[in-house]
Amino acid sequence: MKVKNIDINKVIPYHNNPRKNQAVDKVASSINEYGFQQPIVVDKKMVVIVGHTRLLGAKKLGLKKVPVAIADLSETKSKAYRIADNRLNEDSEWDFEFLNMEIGILQEDDFDLTQLGFNEQELNNLLVNPEEFDEASLEEQGQLDELEPQMITCPHCKKEFDRRIYA
């Protein structure tokens, strides 16, 4: 795949984009923090196949050029890929043990966690310290005391965590 930096005004949003409520602010923030790490994929006519929100985020940031990959797909396959690319992400699930460990490592490195796309409440829920977790609330969450502990060790900080708390 060849990626070219193209004038942002030459990239045409697809008029029937099936996604709505796009997270433009979050994507603009991500582009601002990390740069453009995924190109916008367009057809031969420069119509967006995937990357609508990246295009809107780039426009919000006032970028003049964006990285673009031109796909060699038929119109039918472009339509199908546009839908499949969005739908397939919905089937993925978080592994909360590893997510919590990774966020903990970022926190130790003083990384701005607001750049991850989670809201404040979601971050607070992810960052529960199992050592300070109230035993009464554990019982309210499904009688965890009746299950065998499932300890995992963070490869970075070497702390042990009970997997049951994050499952």
Question: How would you sum up this structure in a few lines?
Answer:
By secondary structure, this protein is an alpha+beta fold. The protein has seven helices and six strands, in the order βαββαβααααββα.
Q: Secondary-structure blueprint of this entry?
A:
Blueprint: E1 3-7, H1 24-34, E2 40-42, E3 48-50, H2 52-61, E4 65-70, H3 75-90, H4 96-108, H5 120-126, H6 135-140, E5 151-153, E6 160-162, H7 163-166
Parallel strand pairs: 2-4
Antiparallel strand pairs: 1-4, 2-3, 5-6
Descriptive notes:
- The protein has 167 residues and is of the alpha+beta class.
- It folds into 2 domains: 3-90, Conserved hypothetical protein from pyrococcus furiosus pfu- 392566-001, ParB domain (Alpha-Beta Complex); 96-166, no CATH class.
- The protein is 40% helix and 14% strand.
- It is built from 7 helices and 6 strands; from the N terminus they run βαββαβααααββα.
- The chain has helices at residues 24-34, 52-61, 75-90, 96-108, 120-126, 135-140, 163-166; strands at 3-7, 40-42, 48-50, 65-70, 151-153, 160-162.
- Helix 1 (24-34) crosses helix 2 (52-61).
- It starts with a strand and ends with a helix.
